[in-house]
User: What shape does this take?
Amino acid sequence: MNQGLIPSRYAKALFEYASEHGCDKPVFERMQTLAGAFASEPALVRAVSNPYVSRHDKIQLLTTASGSNENDMAMSRFLDLLADNNRLDMARDIALAYLKIYRTEHNIRLVTVTSAAPMAEAEESRLKQLIQRHLGSATMEYNHQVNPDLIGGFQVSIDNEKLDASVANELKQLRLKLLN
Assistant: This one.
């Protein structure tokens, strides 16, 4: 079986369970926290995939990393299922797949704006309005990042679409034209 297919199936099953029990939004928030924990702490991947770390410790680690607790039945039962099937090492991929399913089902578009410097509040507000107009009825999950390598301007990513209005991109395009 494909490594991408397994996390997708677990994520779909979790989404269906959470939807039936009316806790799909809290599970979404837990999965966001968990995906963020994996992104910010590379040692988490190693700990969860380490065969010498006990099942109980892995579950505790993932419970804490997701911002959950033992009383959160959906997450608790789900982590137990992953442990029973020796799939705790796929928790990151399952979390990402769940986020994708939830966003699709709730018409949420992931928007990331990257600018060379922090944007003024008025500029950022205007950009958000333009993006929302482009999205129509979809809800926007907005993130802003600063990357000085852009030199100036900004990049907007909406799911898989990307608009690059950065000075670095303009210089790259100019360099390519000069080489031809």
